[in-house]
């Protein structure tokens, strides 16, 4: 999979103007672009051109965006970024829980979209879990379960560490409350533990953030979940 210049991006959107705008912007950043204007056409092109990333509009004329994504997820783990004009939190949560890697709301800034694409491609390229995760001022040693902030060890409880690990491994991506609860507390018990998530995020912020009321590492996505700051990278 290509992670930067030359990566192939499939746009599935029925609005010609949006496709043209995306095509120009993506090619300017040296991405290869493939276009589809319906869900069926998008599914066909996804199977034939094998894109590195898919931009999927929710408002397609034939299939719903969720149905397209469900059918894609039957055979591919390619990153999917949803383009939505809908502001409803329930819609965003449904798409993220259904397999989307991220979303942007129309009208969106092209700079933000390009940044989201880069994050998704880098995340997808990590085929093996790295033993050490580096962030601005923060280091997670996964092999030894150590966390350092500004070069000093930070003491975390097992649950705090597990939550931080899940967030850090998905850095730059929106993680819904359901996804975090399932991965930290388990698929069968997460509903009973749902009230703990906000508490443990608060604990982590007090230990990691200079100002827990203005967090830099763990950012709240209102009504949806949380997004951890993007990792350091060399590209």
TrEMBL record:
Q: Which residues form the Response regulatory domain?
A: 8-121
- Provide the positions where the record notes the PTM 4-aspartylphosphate: 57
* Localization, UniProt: Cytoplasm
Q: Which GO terms describe its molecular function?
A: cis-regulatory region sequence-specific DNA binding; identical protein binding; phosphorelay response regulator activity
In its UniProt entry, the species of origin is given as Paenibacillus algicola
Q: Which domain of life is it from?
A: Bacteria
The primary location reported for this protein is cytoplasm
The protein's matches in InterPro entries, at most eight in alphabetical order, are given as: CheY-like_superfamily, OmpR/PhoB-type_DNA-bd, Sig_transdc_resp-reg_receiver, WalR-like, WH-like_DNA-bd_sf
For this entry, the protein name equals: Transcriptional regulatory protein KdpE
Function in brief: Member of the two-component regulatory system KdpD/KdpE involved in the regulation of the kdp operon. Upon phosphorylation by KdpD, functions as a transcription regulator by direct binding to promoter regions of target genes to positively regulate their expression.
Its cellular-component GO annotations read:
cytosol; protein-DNA complex
The feature table lists the DNA-binding region at 130-230
């Amino acid at each position: 999979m290509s992670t930067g210049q030359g990566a192939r991006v499939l746009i599935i959107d029925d609005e010609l103007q949006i496709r043209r705008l995306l095509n120009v912007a993506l090619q300017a950043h040296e991405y290869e672009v493939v276009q589809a204007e319906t869900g069926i056409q998008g599914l066909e092109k996804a199977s034939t051109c094998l894109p590195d990333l898919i931009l999927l509009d929710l408002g397609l004329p034939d299939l719903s965006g969720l149905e397209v994504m469900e059918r894609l997820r039957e055979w591919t783990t390619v990153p999917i970024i949803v383009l939505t004009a809908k502001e409803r939190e329930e819609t965003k949560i449904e798409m993220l829980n259904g397999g989307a890697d991220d979303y942007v709301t129309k009208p969106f800034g092209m700079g933000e979209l390009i940044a989201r694409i880069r994050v998704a491609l880098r995340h997808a390229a990590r085929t093996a879990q790295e033993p050490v995760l580096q962030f601005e001022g923060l280091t997670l040693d996964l092999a030894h379960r150590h966390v350092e902030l500004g070069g000093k060890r930070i003491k975390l409880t097992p649950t705090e560490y597990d939550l931080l690990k899940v967030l850090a491994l998905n850095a730059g991506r929106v993680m819904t409350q359901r996804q975090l609860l399932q991965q930290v507390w388990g698929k069968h018990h997460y509903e009973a533990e749902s009230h703990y998530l906000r508490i443990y995020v608060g604990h982590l912020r007090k230990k990691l953030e200079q100002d827990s009321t203005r967090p830099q590492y763990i950012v709240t996505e209102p009504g949806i979940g949380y997004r951890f700051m993007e990792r350091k990278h060399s590209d």
